[in-house]
Records
---
Amino acid sequence: MKVTNAEFVISAVRPDQYPGDALPEIALAGRSNVGKSSLINRMINRKNLARTSSTPGKTQHLNYYRINDQLYFVDLPGYGYAKVSKTLRQVWGQMIEKYLLEREHLKLILLVIDLRHPPTKDDEMMYDWLKHYDLPVCVVGTKADKIPKSRWQKHVKIVKDSLVLRARDHFVMFSSEEGIGKDELWSHISRHIIHGDPEEQQGVLD
């Protein structure tokens, strides 16, 4: 996808604050500081539309970014940060759960994981939760540029084995620094937006 227009729209905490223009939504989930904002910026060819932070746990809302007036990226609060209070984590959890289970315009969840390291227990729990509710997931392994190419497949295998990645769930190796995986990820997102679940639309795609 060629991005010609991208803008931040709203930081929402309640359904009545979500945009009402019925555009498809692509949610980004992942632990704090895994690189979701950097991924968004690379995907839309902007350096700082999605603001990155050195402070884990800073994102406390659902941040909506409208792309080409065709879809939204929705950046979810990061999980797994111990210094955030238990009460706040519970509030975040309820907000995220309500969004993921009830938002009719949600087409795909990007589960963003640091490819340099095995998935954390929180990553595994998040993937299991998404699969329990049969939600469409694409796992994105970021920071690929920090790993020697000769070790890429080893790291990909560790992620897939640790999550017990289902065959229908796509995996994209990504680098926000070098753009590795950008075209592949846009292609996968586009298929979900146009056709819904590619597995269910195989005849259409063929």
Note: The radius of gyration is 16 Å.
---
Amino acid sequence: MGEWHPDVLGDGFEQQTLPLGEDAEGEVVATVVRARPHPGARLFGELRDTDVLYVHGWSDYFFQTRLARFFSDRGARFHALDLRKYGRSLRPGQSPGYVASLDVYDADIQAALDAMGTKREGRRLLLLGHSTGGLTLTLWAARHPGVADGLVLNSPWLELQLGPLGRQALAPLVNARARVDPLGTHPVVDLGFYTRAQRDVGALPESPEGWRPSQGFPTHPGWLAAIIAGHARVASGVDVGCPALVLLSARSTVAPRWSDAMRASDSVLVVDDIARAATRIARTVTITRIDGALHDVFLSAPPARDAAYAALEDGLRALR
């Protein structure tokens, strides 16, 4: 077992580095963060037999302390994973967030589960993923049936913004370029509107340099091909082997210019397409649409944020 050390989030949070070998860019690690129980936590709460593993989205890392406290207040052991080449796990000279297959993350997730000791101790496992992390955990759970006892997805990136037909048309072009130039450059498509919306509603703390750029990480053909392959798998139908709760904004505002509506909607994904795709991931799927929510429903303006936590509370009862 590795050692736990103080985390950048301060009191109540610790981290452990998870070695994953090397690749063409050098040392590869993931990082698991755990929330320590605090004096007000209900150690014998309704989730006292549950471990939670959170996985972040694209161009992101774990910093959602209120989300951690939500679970620890109910007796759960909360953990979050900064995947390889993200946040705490990003090393100098690495291409941020880059993988050529989402299956690579099997090693990151397994290392986190080993550090958590969940199944070794006979505890329930609840997976919680945001955006790309939601896609990653959906595919992981489908490849590892019977491991997770519940899946919570916060605006999961289950379909490309172009929709199924656009994805199918784009896939051959992306795959061809990925074969010859996997780390080639793409035009910048993130105009920083989502970051602006989060800051405007007071939901975004300062991040360490390079961990969460306002316009996202550069994207590459190899990575986009991996994402599109993941979307295709979801579209064909998968089974995560457990009940799933999907939380989404009530509406999208995906546009090339800033709009005040972006402070109360998802400015990243087309949520109607995500809702449709979510019906293909499990036998039991609960989809809750939250009025006024941003792409991260838990980082929305206070009324929508409170509604998101209320929906999570209700949804967890169904997952039990």
Note: Strands lie at 5-6, 13-23, 26-35, 50-55, 77-82, 124-130, 150-154, 244-249, 285-290.
